[in-house]
Amino acid sequence: MYGGRDLRTSFCLCAYVSASRESVTQHGKRRGAMSGKRAADRQINNNMTEEELEGGSEEPVGTWQKAEEVRARTHAQTTNNHRLRINNPCPRVQAVLAQRKFYRARRPVRDNSANSASSTSSNPFASVALVSAPATVPNPFASVALVAGAPAAAAGGSSVGAPAAPAAGNSDDIEAKLKALYGGAPSDALGFAAARTHMRSIGGAKTLRAHLESKGLLAEDGLHLKVGSPGKVAPFNVFACVASGHVVQPGMKEENAAIGGFGDRFVVACNRPENDANWASAAPEWVGKASMGQRHRFLTTRDLTWAWFNVLSVGLDGRESALREGLATLDAMHEAAQAFARGTPGWSDAPERLGLFFHCFPYNSVPSIHMHIIDLGATGPTFEDQRHKNLPFAAVRAVLADELAHAEASSGEADERRTEHVDPHENGGGGGVAGYTSMADMMGGSQSQV
């Protein structure tokens, strides 16, 4: 008799032996099947070889072709099964697809128009033109000539426009640079103010003095204009030489006597006799060269300091003392011109008859300050030709007065200094020249020198 433990052990051994026998049997069957397949392949190859040797087959068929046929049939069956699974899915797949369709139907529909509107409102630059401004936007410089000599786009443009690129060439030639910056000769208060701003932007008084020195216009001390007798000094500065006494113009002694006590500070000069004689000529050789009217004179200063070579350089450094001195000298020149007109036959000091003009650098013909005194009752073709660069005396004074007022305001000086230099001679019912005491008054008024 065996115990329970021995019976369990015996039963497990019998089951293991039985499974082992079955495994061996199955393995033998598989080996036999594989052997049979190899035998069949070998037999097919032998048959093919015999047929090829005997020539009984026109198109020999090998095992590789049979394998291709089997592979093609298998691929076709797989493809068909896949198609069947897609077209006729199983119940589980059908349930999943139905659930997806249900949730997709419940999803809210997107409103593209609303999205575009919200994106536009959230973009602060949505309404900004990124390439170019619309053609309807007005161009503030449409009527301004941006380069020297270029025609304005429309009539009535300012004499000085927006700054253009400096002219190419010698960097020391500030004349070309200024002409490019001006965009035209200054002929009003705004143009003259812009010209002074442009001059300061390229170096101001220091650059201007260096330019005069490079042109040989300054004396050895570098502070005064060079003067001398004709033929002994070059370049010849005619008005500076008249002011210094190196040149005495015939027939001008009586006219200089008309300015009275101002003769110690100023000199009245005349044009060439042939230029005066052809003042009314419209011939091309005289237009722009002859005198601007039947009565045309020049008033220059005896002060040969380089800062008085042109109205552009007067007070250019912005110092209050220089601006104050410049205004005082200009007022004295105005009085001297009026005294000349009153004391010289044929002339009149009436505002509508007495024209006082400057030519701003670099549109001046002589490098020494000179004020054109013209009888506006008898002007010629040259006056019209030079009108574009005739800068009225009142415009020059208004700009300097405005600069002085700003300089005093910035330095915190008292307002009494502003009224100290108002012209005490009333013209047109107000202080200053032709009723103007500052640039703002001039631009807001209706009076004009021309």
Please supply descriptive tags for the structure shown above.
rod-shaped; mainly alpha; 450 residues; disordered C terminus; 15 helices; five-stranded antiparallel β-sheet
Could you walk me through the main structural features you see in this protein, from its secondary elements to its overall organization?
With 450 residues, the protein is mainly α. The protein has a domain at 175-444. 47% of the residues lie in helices and 5% in strands. The protein contains 15 helices and five strands. It has helices at residues 4-54, 63-87, 91-106, 112-122, 174-182, 189-201, 204-214, 238-244, 253-257, 273-277, 320-343, 381-386, 393-411, 416-420, 439-444; strands at 266-269, 296-301, 354-358, 370-375, 391-392. The protein has a five-stranded antiparallel sheet with strand order 1-2-4-3-5, sandwiched between helices. Helix 6 crosses helix 13 (393-411) and helix 11 packs antiparallel against helix 13 (393-411). The longest helix has 51 residues, at 4-54. It is rod-shaped and about 160 Å long. It starts with a helix and ends in a 6-residue tail after the last helix. The relative contact order is 0.07.
What topology does this entry show?
Elements: H1 4-54, H2 63-87, H3 91-106, H4 112-122, H5 174-182, H6 189-201, H7 204-214, H8 238-244, H9 253-257, E1 266-269, H10 273-277, E2 296-301, H11 320-343, E3 354-358, E4 370-375, H12 381-386, E5 391-392, H13 393-411, H14 416-420, H15 439-444
Antiparallel strand pairs: 1-2, 2-4, 3-4, 3-5
Helix pairs in contact: 6-13, 11-13
